[in-house]
Structure formats: structure tokens, C-alpha cells
């Protein structure tokens, strides 16, 4: 196992981060024209950088995601990692200073960020306190939930109509259904770059559901434009069988690809569209493209969130915050340990914004 693989505690992350520079992420970026999201997604994924699991790597990657396999590599490097990815709470004043005078736009992953990771994905509810914190943020800043779940499902968890929702890893984006404080033409925002894949995704869902019945604890979740095969509750000696079954089903579908999240395999259309594209699309839709006075904050815990962290690094604007209790390779600049800290961070942000306006 390489150091790279061993470093990941809960999930393998492929991006190699440059050392973080807290408070130095707001250089301007060149103006771009708003795009048609379906056209933009026509390109195929770059398999070398997309995190797509290539042949032979599947079981190894699943094992690398297990804390039992990864913890031994963590201890000594933790201090150095925290230095490079400081706590967004402990360095809160630095975050505020970087955002000073700029329009904050908030992007939040759901599972593991706003809600704890639980054994049954259908039970991943968020607390009322967290809902209040997100509601508070949305009153001050445009706020989007960016999740691998299907949009309807994540909306049913969050239940806030004033937010933007990007479900299915950003392949299903919709603006608020309720008038918010922000002036964007929110209800006109709709982006579904993978609609042509719906029939094949549903077909694979049926096949996989049937195949997984023989593997105790395996669960296939239908997220509309993508599928999730959860193996959190599968005994480790059955992972190889599960991996082979999933791979065998996908062999017949070259238009789909396989990626890995936290104890989950994701089946997605092979198009160039991810959470990073969703972030860019929303910034453009909100009229913030090319503006140096905008400060996006993206908070997420998973490998798929790395695509959004990379976008922020590339545009040199805003900050990415990785939610994790242990060191991981990441393109995020800051860290928070768990959803409770996310809630605290959101509350502090609202409080400081309110104080500023008084
Ligand atoms: Mg997550």
C-alpha cells in the first residue's frame, strides 16, 4: 500500500494539496460566460484525475477506506496536517479577514457535514439545531446544498425552501422555491446535464438491486442520476464478492463509471460533471462569475467534495473546509472535525455578519 492510500482514514482522496495558506484565497479570476450545463457536460471524464476506479483497484480502495486499515498511518502526521489545514473554528478570525468586504456564498455537503454518517442512509436526519444554523446562514448569504443524494431526498432531510439544491453529485440543480433575501433569479435555475442517462441508470438500479440481495448488509440507493452501493453494513470478507458483482454489472455499460465515497461505491454517467461543476454553475447563475468580491465557502467531508475544493483552489478564491477527524489528502484549506463543529462555524459566521451590520 502506498503512503497515499494509507493516509486516508475514511475514504481515499486522490488530490494532492499544496500547503494551505489560511486567509490568502481571494485573488480575482477571469470572467466567464454562463454556460448551458448540458453542453458543458458533453465532454467525458478525464479518467486520470476524476477519481474513477480503474480495473483491479476496487477492493484495495474499499479496504483503504476502512479506519481499521488506515489508522496506523495517521498518528505522527496529524500535527503537520493540522498545521496545513487549520481548524476553521480556531482560525475563525482569519477566515473572516479573508472574506472581509466580499459576498460570501455558502456551499454545504449533506451526509457527514450537516448530518452524522449513520448505518442506515435513510436515517441520516439533521438536528433542529443544525437546521436553524443553516436557515440563519441562508438569511445572510446565498446557500446551496450539494449532495450525492437525489435532490428530492436531500430536500426532505433539510426542508428549507430558501436554499439552492444540487443533488446527484451536482447533476440535478434547482434554485429556491421560496423567495430569499438574494436577488438572483433563483426559480429559473435548473440544471440537469445527465437526463439522457436516466433510462440506463434505472436499468442498472434494477439489476444491481437484484444482485446485491445475496450480499448481507449491501444496499443500493437510487439517487436518480447516479446510484450508490452502500457497503458500510457488509462484513469485510464479502467486500471482494460485492466489488466483483458491481464490476460485472457495469462491464455492460461503458457510458457509466464507478467512483468511491465513504463506505459507498457510486455509479455515475461518464460525463464531465461533478460537484465542482455544480459550484461553478451556481456561481455563474447567481451572477458572481468574474467578480473578485465574491467569497465562496465549500464545506464537505467526502472524496466527491474534492472536485469543488479543487475549483476554489484553481480560481484562487474562497475556501474549502474538509470535515474529518483524521488527516486526509485534500485540496481543502481548512478543516472541521464533525457536523457539530460545522454547526458552530455556521453560527459564528451569522453572528459576526449580524454584528458587522449593526
Ligand atoms: Mg458527505
UniProtKB/TrEMBL annotation:
Q: Supply the source organism for this entry.
A: Hordeum vulgare subsp. vulgare (Domesticated barley)
The family note in this entry says: Belongs to the trehalose phosphatase family.
Against InterPro entries, the record matches this protein to: HAD-like_sf (IPR036412), HAD-SF_hydro_IIB (IPR006379), HAD_sf (IPR023214), OTSB-like (IPR044651), Trehalose_PPase (IPR003337)
Necessary cofactors: a divalent metal cation
Presence of the UniProt keyword Hydrolase in the record? yes
Matching entries from CDD domains are given as: HAD_TPP
Q: Which Pfam families match?
A: Trehalose_PPase (PF02358)
Q: Which UniProt keywords apply?
A: Hydrolase, Stress response
Protein name per UniProt: Trehalose 6-phosphate phosphatase
State the encoding gene: LOC123425225
The answer to keyword Hydrolase applying to this record is yes
Q: What does this protein do?
A: Removes the phosphate from trehalose 6-phosphate to produce free trehalose. Trehalose accumulation in plant may improve abiotic stress tolerance.
Enzyme Commission number, as recorded: 3.1.3.12
GO BP: any one term: trehalose biosynthetic process
Q: Which GO terms describe its molecular function?
A: trehalose-phosphatase activity
Its pathway, per UniProt, is:
Glycan biosynthesis; trehalose biosynthesis
Q: What class of enzyme is it?
A: hydrolase
Amino acid at each position: 500500500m502506498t503512503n497515499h492510500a494509507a493516509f486516508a482514514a475514511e475514504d481515499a482522496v486522490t488530490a494532492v494539496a499544496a500547503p494551505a495558506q489560511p486567509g490568502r484565497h481571494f485573488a480575482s479570476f477571469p470572467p466567464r460566460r454562463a454556460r448551458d450545463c448540458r453542453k458543458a457536460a458533453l465532454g467525458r471524464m478525464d479518467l486520470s484525475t476524476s477519481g474513477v476506479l480503474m480495473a483491479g483497484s476496487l477492493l484495495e480502495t474499499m479496504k483503504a477506506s476502512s479506519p481499521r486499515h488506515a489508522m496506523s498511518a495517521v498518528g505522527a502526521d496529524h500535527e503537520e496536517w493540522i498545521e496545513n489545514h487549520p481548524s476553521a473554528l480556531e482560525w475563525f478570525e482569519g477566515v473572516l479577514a479573508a472574506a472581509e468586504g466580499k459576498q460570501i456564498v455558502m456551499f454545504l455537503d449533506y451526509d457527514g457535514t450537516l448530518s452524522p454518517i449513520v448505518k442506515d442512509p435513510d436515517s441520516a436526519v439533521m438536528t433542529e439545531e443544525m437546521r436553524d444554523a443553516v436557515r440563519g446562514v441562508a438569511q445572510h448569504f446565498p446557500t446551496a446544498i450539494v449532495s450525492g443524494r437525489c435532490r428530492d431526498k436531500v430536500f426532505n432531510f433539510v426542508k428549507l425552501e430558501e436554499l439552492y439544491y444540487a443533488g446527484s453529485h451536482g447533476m440535478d440543480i434547482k434554485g429556491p422555491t421560496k423567495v430569499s433575501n438574494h436577488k438572483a433569479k433563483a426559480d429559473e435555475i435548473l440544471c440537469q446535464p445527465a437526463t439522457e442517462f436516466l433510462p440506463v441508470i434505472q436499468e442498472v438500479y434494477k439489476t444491481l438491486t437484484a444482485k446485491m440481495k445475496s450480499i448481507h448488509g449491501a444496499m443500493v440507493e437510487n439517487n436518480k442520476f447516479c446510484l450508490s452501493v452502500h457497503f458500510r453494513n457488509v462484513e469485510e470478507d464479502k467486500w471482494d464478492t460485492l466489488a466483483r458483482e458491481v464490476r460485472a454489472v457495469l462491464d455492460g455499460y461503458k457510458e457509466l463509471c464507478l467512483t468511491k465515497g465513504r463506505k459507498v461505491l457510486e455509479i455515475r454517467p461518464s460525463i464531465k460533471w461533478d460537484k465542482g461543476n455544480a459550484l461553478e454553475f451556481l456561481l455563474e447563475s447567481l451572477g458572481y462569475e468574474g467578480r473578485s468580491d465574491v467569497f465562496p465557502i465549500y464545506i464537505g467531508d467526502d472524496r466527491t467534495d474534492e472536485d469543488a475544493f479543487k475549483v476554489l483552489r484553481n480560481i484562487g478564491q474562497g475556501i474549502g473546509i474538509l470535515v474529518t477527524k483524521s488527516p486526509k489528502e485534500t485540496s481543502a484549506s481548512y478543516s472541521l472535525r464533525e457536523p457539530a463543529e460545522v454547526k458552530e462555524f455556521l453560527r459564528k459566521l451569522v453572528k459576526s455578519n449580524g454584528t458587522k451590520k449593526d
